[in-house]
User: What shape does this take?
Amino acid sequence: NAGVTQTPKFRILKIGQSMTLQCTQDMNHNYMYWYRQDPGMGLKLIYYSVGAGITDKGEVPNGYNVSRSTTEDFPLRLELAAPSQTSVYFCASSYSIQGYGYTFGSGTRLTVV
Amino acid sequence: TQLLEQSPQFLSIQEGENLTVYCNSSSVFSSLQWYRQEPGEGPVLLVTVVTGGEVKKLKRLTFQFGDARKDSSLHITAAQPGDTGLYLCAGATGNQFYFGTGTSLTVIP
Assistant: This one.
């Protein structure tokens, strides 16, 4: 049982560079989410998807893009990286919202310099 | 917008002590969850509570959902060093969970 797999685990980007954070789940979950976690700020939702082909913005979507072409994959794209995007990024999936919890990946620690 | 406030933010106690962590909001949630997160890892689900007034026990951990489904508490009896971690509550509304800022617990042997 792999659960939710995120790659890479660590990455350093220069200001203005772009990258894609990968997220794959093998539990056939319809719901997938991207959060960022900053010290003392909790988890903030960036984007989410309720199924293949459907995505929606969360609380902090600026500077990010997502796509959901398959049930399993939900990549997060950072365009023109900025120091404010330095954070730990978590992907999560869920079978449903009501009565079910998230399964989180182990995170990607991103530093923009 | 921070929908969920957790208190205390930090807690350091001796092994064997009891503690309670609170999660409060002015919003009503359809369900509420508690997670524990260890350094370098993603949060791991501990429990989901759905019904107002619901109490769930998980060994030494007791979770309660407020009658009005706006708040919750986590009580740990006889804390152990293995309980050390960041405890997060999360409330469901619409298609999302909103997370609290977390309570960092350290249990000293």
Notes: The interface with chain A takes residues 1-2, 9, 30-31, 33, 35, 40-45, 48, 50, 88, 90, 92, 94-102 of chain B (CB under 8 Å). Residues 51 and 74 of chain B are 16 Å apart (CA to CA).
